[in-house]
Amino acid sequence: MGKIAITERVTGHTELIGLIAYPIRHSMSPTMHNEAFKKLGLDYVYVCFEVDNSTLKDTVAGLRAMKVRGWNVSMPNKGPITEYLDNLSPVSQIIGACNTVVNDNGVLTGTITDGVGAMHSLKEEGVAYVGKKMTIIGAGGAATAIQVQAALDGAREISIFNLKDKFFAHAEKIVNDLNERTDCRVTLFDLADHAALKRELDSSDIYIDATSCGMKPLEDVVAIPDKSYLRPDLVVMDTVYAPRETKLMKWAQEVGCHTFNGLGMMLYQGAAAFKLWTGKEMPVEHIKDILF
Description:
The protein has eleven helices and twelve strands. It is of the alpha/beta class. It starts with 5 loop residues before the first helix and ends with a helix. The model has no long low-confidence stretch (mean pLDDT 94). This is Shikimate dehydrogenase (NADP(+)). NADP(+) binds at residues 138-142, 239, 262.
């Protein structure tokens, strides 16, 4: 593919879309969105901004003032940014976080598309989750979005495991909200309780690891103690996509599980944000050819 002159892609009318996070230079989102803009002939450009909590308030004010159409939000800003927005979607209200902001003439609305992306990824893999039991490890922003979306979509039961860290109390609130608002039975466990983890995985249809285990610098870390916690008919999804194959995925493949990484989730959460910003469907098959 030949190089495209910058003047062919950026004009005086180009709309800006961004991503604010720290660190962020590893992100595949600029490639995904810029290729989609190019494919559809849309006059937008997507760029990364390394922003942490210390400069987040000023950044949001600046993006609003510059009439930036929208942006993605990743760690460590997903929760804190909600303080600086005008509206939150119902899912973001439950979670208390967002990963996508839309700027409608100065009115900033936050939502979270991670859960939609994860559920779409399961469907793409031919995995039925409505009426099924899931075990999900993690209680951060992406993990919580997956839990909320799965419960809203009709999962029968969700067992959540997390260390008793700063996210645990928030996870307790999420569990209470989901048990009150949905027909899904949701239970929270301490990840250190290995007997409970084994029991819940043994009775689950789907296991989703929504932690940072497997990513740098945790490449050799797995949230479960060993391969005996897996069985061949368990579907295993790891939300990490860099590296493409984590240690958990290798274990799952050795056991014979249907297993896949977070690329599909990343693609479909991006597609949902893309539509919010542009009103257009992302050309996902074209993007798959580039990313996958």
